[in-house]
């Protein structure tokens, strides 16, 4: 049973980073996303599937004036320009509590967690699934 779960999770989410072949670029973040979260690894596959259902009310990431991706900050709800650096999503200005560590990416699904411990406890592992174009 465990191997079936691992296979379904790998198919749904993609390969774990930071494998060089799985590089994500800042422009990959721009678009419309169905979003959910999970705190327990056992819930991952279910929440990834559920994220697709939220595309009717997508989380929209836009392109920023500096070429970054504009996303919401945790806690204050402000939008901030972010960029991808290795396996992290970081604020362009370096003044953010919302640095995110990417754990999986396959071109259409993204899972990350916040590096800030308070944000990590509150928001868990964030699941983004790209909505149809």
Keywords, separated by commas or semicolons:
disordered N terminus; 133 residues; single chain; 36% strand; alpha+beta; eight-stranded antiparallel β-barrel; 3 helices
Q: What do these coordinates show?
A:
This protein is of the alpha+beta class and 133 residues long. The protein has 3 helices and 9 strands. It has helices at 2-13, 44-51, 117-123, and strands spanning 15-16, 31-38, 59-63, 69-72, 79-85, 88-91, 100-105, 109-114, 125-130. The chain has an 8-stranded antiparallel barrel with strand order 2-3-4-5-6-7-8-9. A hairpin with a 3-residue loop joins strand 7 (100-105) and strand 8 (109-114). Helix 1 (2-13) runs parallel beside helix 2. The longest helix has 12 residues, at 2-13. The protein is globular and about 35 Å long. The protein starts with a helix and ends with a strand. The model is unreliable at 1-21 (pLDDT under 50).
Tertiary shape = globular
- Terminal Cα span: 35 Å
The helix content, as a percent range, equals 10-25%
How many separate helices?
Answer: 3
Strand order of the largest sheet: 2-3-4-5-6-7-8-9
Order of helices and strands: HEEHEEEEEEHE
Percentage of residues in DSSP E strands: 35-45%
Low-confidence stretches: 1-21
On the 0 to 100 scale, the average pLDDT is 82
In total, the number of strands is: 9
The largest sheet is: 8 strands, antiparallel, barrel
Structural class: alpha+beta
Q: What is the C-alpha radius of gyration, as a whole number of Å?
A: 14 Å
């Amino acid at each position: 049973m465990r191997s079936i779960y691992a296979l379904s999770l790998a198919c749904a989410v993609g390969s774990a980073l930071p494998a060089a072949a799985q590089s994500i670029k800042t422009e990959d973040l721009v678009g419309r996303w169905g979003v959910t979260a999970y705190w327990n690894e056992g819930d991952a596959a279910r929440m990834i599937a559920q994220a697709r259902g939220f595309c009717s009310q997508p989380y929209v990431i836009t392109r920023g004036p500096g070429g970054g991706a504009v996303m919401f900050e945790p806690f204050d709800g402000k939008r901030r320009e972010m960029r991808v650096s290795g396996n992290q999503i970081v604020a362009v200005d370096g003044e953010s509590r919302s640095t995110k560590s990417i754990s999986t990416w396959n071109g259409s699904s993204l899972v990350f967690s916040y590096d800030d411990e308070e944000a990590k406890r509150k928001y868990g592992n964030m699941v983004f699934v790209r909505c149809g174009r």
